[in-house]
UniProtKB/TrEMBL annotation:
Residues 6-174 form the NAD(P)-binding domain. This is Uncharacterized protein YbjT (DUF2867 family). It comes from the Bacteria. InterPro entries: Ergot_Alk_Oxidoreductase (IPR051604), NAD(P)-bd_dom (IPR016040), NAD(P)-bd_dom_sf (IPR036291). It comes from Saccharothrix violaceirubra. Gene3D superfamilies: NAD(P)-binding Rossmann-like Domain, UDP-galactose 4-epimerase, domain 1.
Amino acid sequence: MILVIGGTGTTGRAVLRSLSVPTRALVRRPGGLPPGVEQVVGDAADPGPLRAALTGVSGVFLAMGNGPRQEAIELGVVAEAARAGVDHLVKLSAPSAAADSPVAIARLHHRVEEAVRASGIAHTFLRPYAFFQNLLFHAERVRAVGWFPAATGDTPLNMVDARDVADVAVAALTRRITGTHLLTGAEAVSYPEVAARLTAAGRPTRCVTVTPDELRADLRGAPDWLVEHVVEIQRLATTHPERPNDTVARLLGRPPRRLDDFMAEHAGAFGGPIRTDSTA
């Protein structure tokens, strides 16, 4: 039995769709899961539902949403998984996870990774860069005004499709692949180039370069921790180059999904038909 914690998130939902072995999900609200997935309703921070969900489980996929409670919840999951005798834990982490990372949430991931190592559970740490799916956060503004802001200038970013990350997670869970894996897409693309590709594909779009303070102002209304996280990861991209690797292809036996195909798939979200034959 595989337990998925975070099954309603972008990656966790894709993991649930792809697993073909007995699967259970710990969810806050019932319903909405793929057919055949067993569910335990409760909060991962609550030891009762968490222990019930871990009963009889051999593998765990852990992908909590970023937030102030994330570290405490993930540390609790690790402790309970060790208590339950879980054989293998696959954790969604961050590419810059280290004690001295300039990104607060990456330091959080490092501390949880250290707890997993100390627990003695066999483990897999998946460290993807930003997801293609994050581009959809800009879609409403692109439809309305034809531009979106970024503080990364012309810095190439190595975005990856969350579904590829999920497929690697499934491979790790079912084939017992362990270790730490940096996951990238096939290419590094700057935000201005993303805008140029949308434009060439029939959706006129500009990326407006802003300062970190201007980005903070643009994000006004979001939680403070989230605003600072976005600013930190955009700053990190400009100081730590992101380069493609072959990890997804090596683990899955196929190349990672392409950004152009993702944009074509979500053409409607950006406000217009995007040609699938675009070579921009």
